[in-house]
Amino acid sequence: MKAWLNHDHGAALRCEEVPDPDPGSEGLVIQVSHCGLCHSDLHRWRGISNMGSRGVVQRPRPENPVAMGHEIVGEIVGMGTAVTGRRLGEKVIVYPWFGCGRCRACLSGADNMCREPTRSLGFGNHGGFAERVAVPHERYAVPLGDLSPEQAAPLACAGLTVRCAIRKIEPFDPTEAIVTIGTGGVGLTAISVLHALGHRNVIALDRDPSRAAVAVAAGAARFIATPEGTTSADLIEALGGKVDTVLDFVNSSQTATLAFDLLGKGGQMVQVGLYGGELSVPLPLITGASLTVRGSITGTLDDLRDVVRMARNGQLPAIPVSVLPKSALNDAIHRLENGQVKGRIVLVAEGGDLAA
Ligand SMILES: [Zn+2]
Ligand SMILES: [Zn+2]
């Protein structure tokens, strides 16, 4: 099959021939029709992580490049001999974050917390920038039903990631302010999932004032622009006081500091973005105000099923999606890198042939 491979960090992906995936006895092979482009693809493509004062970590050049892409919708084209109850041609959304299947985290359904080296699609195995992907068990293929594939693809990362992060702040009072930072694909999806869960007081922050309309359309009660130079004191004044909960979908030194400063007594911040940098805070404040600082990485298969159910029930306000042919993948990466994407880019296979 053909796959777009990342031979050098930051260089154009190249479309090449790679071996076809094998479903094993319990798995499936899925022909990729749609694949979202996520900021974590960008991080992997660039190969660097900003660790703040600990420096910038540069990952080695990949010896065996893997096709990225983990927001996958497609059709079942191959099944292991032990698979029952699925049919060829069935359209599915793929859970890409599968773990080893044996450790305590995996056995409890939290594949995203597996301690083994990742087998996730687009990381340890070829993902949706290849023609076909394999999942090791049929449970990782969630029926698409009547959802549009363009809207459904981002649920496999953006959707389940925000569902998992929101689970960490439940239960919440639907009228109590929740501040979200960042209105990219994941931030907008968070606003929309909170809305679907009945929350009615999301205050969305973004440094770009032109994001106000999409944030409100996704369900935010209010939007506050935070251009360069916005101080914590400015924001606390604009909010009318401190808040209990901040979800940070950027997670840079600046946004994390802002999130921390906004927290009132007993407040909690959940860091979801991968922008990088570091958080330096006065320790007595953590104790004195009983604050919680925590992280959240992707989500579980149940989180995916939950957001798919919400979307099927018509509860999720749709986020903007730009559809591009898969041959425009390199251009799409540059658009995302330059902040030119509102919502999500979803790449579509052209007649099953991914060659440019
Ligand atoms: Zn992602
Ligand atoms: Zn595991």
Plain-language structure description:
- Residues 352-356 have low confidence and may be disordered.
- Strand 11 (202-206), helix 6 (212-218) and strand 12 form a beta-alpha-beta unit.
- This protein has 11 helices and 17 strands.
- The protein has 2 domains: 2-157 and 299-348, Medium-chain alcohol dehydrogenases, catalytic domain (Quinone Oxidoreductase, Chain A, domain 1); 162-295, Rossmann fold.
- The radius of gyration is 20 Å and the shape is globular.
- It is of the alpha/beta class and 356 residues long.
- Helix 4 (158-167) packs across helix 10 (301-312).
- Strands 3, 6, 7, 8, 9, 16 and 17 form a 7-stranded mixed β-sheet that branches.
- The longest helix is centred in the middle third of the chain and has 12 residues, at 185-196.
- It is 25% helix and 24% strand.
- The protein binds zinc ion (2 copies).
- The site of one zinc ion (ZN) has 8 residues, from helix 2.
